[in-house]
Amino acid sequence: MHTDTSPTVLITGGAGFIGSHLATELLQHGYQVRILDNLMPQVHGSERRLPDHLDRRAEVVVGDIRDPHQIKEALDGVDAVVHLAAVVGDRSSMYQIEKYMSVNTAGTAVLLEALLDHPVERLIVASSSAVYGEGLYCSYNGTVYPKIRRSPEETARGGWEPRSPDGEVIYPLPTPETKEVSPLSVYALSKYDQEEMCRLIGESYGIPTTILRLFSVYGPHQGYANPYSGVLTEYASRLLQGFPIRLFEDGYQQRDFVSVYDAARAFRLALESPGAAGGTFNIASGRPCTFRTVADLLATMAGRQELAPEILGVSRIGDIRHCFADISRAREVLGYEPEVPLEAGLLDLLTWVEAGIAERRKVPAAIRAPGSSRLRV
Question: What is the pTM of this model?
Answer without folding.
Answer: 0.92
